[in-house]
Write a structure and sequence with these properties.
The complex is a heterodimer. Chain A is mainly α. Chain A contains three helices and no strands. In chain B, helix 12 links the parallel strand 10 and strand 11. Classes of the chains: A mainly alpha, B alpha/beta. The interface between A and B is medium-sized, with 12 and 13 residues.
Amino acid sequence: MCKDEIFRVIQKNIITVLPHITQDVITPDKELKDLGANSIDRSEIILKTLEDLNLKIPLTKIVKFKNIGALSEFIAHEK
Amino acid sequence: MKSRVLVTGMGIVSSIGFNVNDFSQSLKHGNTNFGYLPGPEISMDSAVIGATIKDFSLNTLLDKYTWLPVSCSTNILRYAGRSPLPVIAGVIAASEAWNNADLFNNPVSPERTGIIIAGQNLSNNYQFQLYDKFIKGPEYLTPRYAIEYLDTNIMGILSEIFQIHGEGFTTGGASASGNVGLVKGYQLIEQGDMDICMVVGCLADLSPMDLQGFKNSGAMGGKKFKNNPRKACRPFDEEHEGFIYGQASGCIILESSGSVEKRKTDINAELLGGAIVLDGNRMADPRQEGEVRAMATALKKCQLKPGDIDYLNTHGTSSPIGDNTEIDSIKEVFKNNLSTLIINSTKGLTGHCLYSAGVVELIATIIQLQNNFVHPNINLDNPVDEVCRFAGSVAETVEINIGMSNSFGFGGMNTSIVIKKI
């Protein structure tokens, strides 16, 4: 799965967790924090994405990333 | 100086109405919504009957609530949209009550506003539903779980939505939780600690394990009338055989008379007081001594005599030992006034809403006081007692001014509260 597909999975999960956010606002250069995600929201978005992709990566390995694009890239690399 | 405690807001989500108006109509017409419970089959020798909330959608309700400020509606979806049913039902009931008390337009200081969450074990079904998934992949357990499994979750959510910054806590009292919350709310206002107190009776979201436990303990009914769910819940009838589960969340806004004067808001009724007493009994059996003491203590605290009470909203769960003990207790307390005391059980229409029962039944009592009627006991074909004056099979028009509402619970809990028409 390429990073664009992973980005779309993340995008879907952001909307589930943050229902007031519209799809067009979610771009690879944004940080989850910029979208108003608190620490629990951020963990939930990542866990939901890992679950959708059937991936098991310790959360501690992926807490630091520059933006949503970098997160997609990191997960694509692990997949 | 002690303050008078007034009810300025009411809201409800129940199996017989998703708001106070619809609930009132159902009380008047004796409407019910009993059926077979959905969900996984549980092993037992009879059908599981209950009155659940059906066709309930947060989004649809929010769309209808045009009075709800847009920012509030957005926050509700954001904070509670994916929450378990007790949270969602509580948020809807609280919104209606907040609006009824005109607190969106005419608020008081957040620091002088408190919140009491009446209920316990609110996440049992939520935990039960997550269990299979958890066993397969514990890594994927939502991080939200650590907040959501706590009973105080609903307190946190409501306090953020309505900006409540005063005292807040939960009151567990088994099936008397609602009345325990109301008595504690009464005390906060009476003592001047708060100007406003939101009391939320929480929906009991029973897991299949909880239901089976109640069934195995012999507390639950539904065998004799397993082919006719509408007939199964029959408080004080000779054929009663156990409680029938019901789902509802109710919210009451209590307010000090001083605050009401300042805000010039409408009043639904006055809460005169209430009592909580224990039997010193860890088991499920009700005891006359404690029930009598709860009613007598409530009367004494309110400086009333038995003859001052026109109407009694009973605990009346449809359990033989529960109903019979309550009737004996009522006879002991009201002695020579039984012919003028009208009795009914709201559980005959809503089912037993467990933790929220006290709040739901206070709302039912206020509706009857305000509209001069008593709702029917629809399945009371052969009353277990010939002396007490039970409401009939259809609603009766009658002027009632002061009502009492009883709630009892496992573990020797006995509570009574008293409410007066304004």
